[in-house]
Structures are given as structure tokens and as C-alpha cells.
Amino acid sequence: MRLSPLVANSTEAVLREILRFIGPADAVLSRYFRESPKLGPRERAAVAEAVYAVLRNRLVYTNLAESGSGAAMRRMALLGMADTVGVEAIGGLAELESTWLARVMQVDRNALPLALRLNLPEWLLARLTRQFGEEGAGAIADGLNQPAPLDLRVNALKGNRDDVLAALTAAHIDCVPTPYSPLGIRLGAKPALQHVALFQQGAIEVQDEGSQLLIQVVGAKRGEMVVDFCAGAGGKTLGLGAAMRNTGRLYAFDVSEKRLAKLKPRLARSGLSNVHPVVIAHENDAKVKRLAGKIDRVLIDAPCSGLGTLRRNPDIKWRQNPEGLQELAAKQASILASAARLVKPGGTLVYATCSILEEENEDIVTQFLAAHAEFALRPMGAVLAEQKIALEMGDYLKLSPHVHGTDGFFAAVMQRQALKAAVAESAAEPVSQAADATPDAPADTAAETSVESTAEAPARE
Fold first, then answer.
1. CATH class assigned to 150-206
2. 354 given a catalytic annotation
3. 209-437, superfamily in CATH?
4. Which of 40-54, 58-72, 263-277 has the lowest mean pLDDT?
5. Torsion sign across C-alpha atoms 192, 197, 202, 205
């Protein structure tokens, strides 16, 4: 069925704003749709898919668009539609446009230069090549350039996965269990979940399988005190609360009152009553300091580049830059050092990002451990085995789309020495060194930087 010419025109119009890269593409699209009541659900879906195709394939599309005549933005929009809905579905094409599209769609894109084919900015391709080698960088880029599936997490307080799978199947929703998360479900399409009874009842939440695995490695248990340090809209908070079986006390910290406000209706649906959202000014807020040394488990889903979520947010690769990464690394180190003070002796600290770059991941953890002898890294393989998750990992959780089918995620689990062990170690050291290694010594060098996720760090629900 051919789409209205309004779709191609709308795609071109919204691309003109999105490709300025002033803000997140999803926010620009949402505003455009609110201001365009003539677009129905089918038209909106077609516009969104075409826009995201352009963002994923910007370099290739720019190259192909140069071979035509007329407005380049119009040709970019048409290429996005051709790759998503097909040339035959595009309404309102001029004869010259039809001829041009038929020709460029025959181009063998695999024959294009690697840098062009991978659709990454030069600085990012250089970093990935240095970190993973040329072949590895190509595989990761290919995975990140594919559209992401829609994953759900079953709320264990309101049902089990088998029953939810059966109910979704009965509602004619194509779904399968995720391969790693015991509570995950992967949908074959993207239905309007707000109209699905299971969603309305709080039995399911949208959450990438990788994000679900972060909840698993935290290992929260009944009756514990847990902090989700950069909670945002609370996707992981909800999972942690369910893992705690709605017992104990779960703090959701964030500097954004607006983001935490989005958690409230989700909490109401979930049935959780052990969650306490707390707005903080920064990571050294007095509300944080009052809990120093009292928390069983702390999760830091740190503000990051978001480069592991390019399947969902492809505009990030064009909006991020090396200077922004340096600023983020300083913020990540400060947040980790400050949040670590909450962990009680014997407690667990989990540092996580949705980035694939070492400078935001391993480098941050290595620096932290070198400065905090009271913490030790737990091998991720052992952590996953405890949770009965069949994943082969070394010291860290490192997920990627082309290997695991998830967004790109990183996590490190660190344990604070139990009090007796720390005292024994301190007694064996010179006094000057023991003072530095005391578990309760504050990290007073941490700068008061914001915990708030930047525009480059999208929600990883």
C-alpha cells in the first residue's frame, strides 16, 4: 500500500532539524509528531523508521545522495524510506526521483570503502579499531547499525515468564524468551504496549536484556538496603525492587526531579512499596553522606557516552566527540569514588555503563581500585554463575549486539572488605598506609560534579 506524499515531506522536514544535532533525535521526533496532527500512526511509524535509517547510514546515504539532482535532504529522506518501507511504498515521487532511486538502490554497498560502510565518525572508528582491531571494530559497528528488538522484563511480583509468554501469544503478539535473562522476553514486532493489559497491570516493563542482566549481577536480596545511584526514570530500580521481593529499603537517587517523577506511575503499576526516590543536588549531597557505610549494595549506572545504545539512538555517534568523553571520564571517576562511601564492610559496589569504550569502563575501574585498597574486583564469571546465568565472561560483564543481541553494556562488581579483614590488614601495614586504606576513609578529593546523565546518555530501560 502506497504511503501518502505527506510521509516523505515530513521525513525531509524533521531531518532538517535532527541533522543539526542540537538535541536527541527522539525528543525532536516527539515534538514534531505533537505538532503534526495530520500524521496517523502508520505515517508516524514510517517517518520514524526512515529518520533512524538516515542516522544509522548517514555516511553511505550522503555518498549516494551526491549522485542525484535536487535537494540533498530530500534524497536522504527518500533513501531512508526506500530502505525501510520499500521504493514501491513511497508516495509522491517525481519521475526523476523514481529513476534515481531505482539506480542507487542497485549499488553494492559492500563494495564501498570500509570507513564509509561502517557509518562511524573517524574519531570513533579509530578508537574501536585500536581497541578491537579492524575486524572486531567492523563487527561491532555492523551490530550497532542494526535496529534493536523490543525486550520486556517480567515483574516477578506479578507473574512468571512462562505465563506471560502464554498470555502474549494468546494476544497474537510474537514473542520468545531472551537467551540470558531469566525474566526477559523478546518481541518480534513493536506493538502499542500501552494498550496491552499485562503492561497496564505492571506485569511487564520495557527493558533491554543487557539492562536486565545488570540487575542480576547486583544480586539484591530480601531485606537489604540498596541504592540505585543514578536512577533516572527507574527501569533498573523497578527490577531491583522486585529482586528484593518488595522488602528492605531501596533508594533511587538522581539529580533530576523530572526524571524521578517518571518513576512514580511505574511504581504504582509495579506494586512496589520499598522504593524511596530521592532528589540530590550532586553526588556529595548530605542526603548521600548520611548513608555512608550503611548500604549492602550500590549500583552506579553512570552517565556515559551511550555509544552502546547506537541501535536505538544512532544520532549519538554524530553528537558525541572526544572532548565530551574526557569530561564524562572525570565525572564517572568522581561519581564512583563518592558512591563507594555508601557501601558497608562486606557490601557490593557495581559500576556500569552503556558504553563500549575502555576509557569509560575498564580504565575508570582500574583507577578506582588503585586508589581504594578496601575494594576488590569480583570476577564476573563467578558472579554470573551465582545467578545461574549461562554467559562466559572474564573479570567484567561486556555485552555487545553482534555477540549477545543486547545493547552494548559494561559492568564491574567490587566488594568492600569485611571489617575484620580490613582491621587485620591495617594492623599489618605502616601507620601512614593504614590510614589511607581504612574502609571508612572519605574520598574527599572527589569533585562535586553532577550525577545527572547528559544528553549523550540515553535511558537504557
1. alpha beta
2. yes
3. Vaccinia Virus protein VP39 (3.40.50.150)
4. 58-72
5. negative
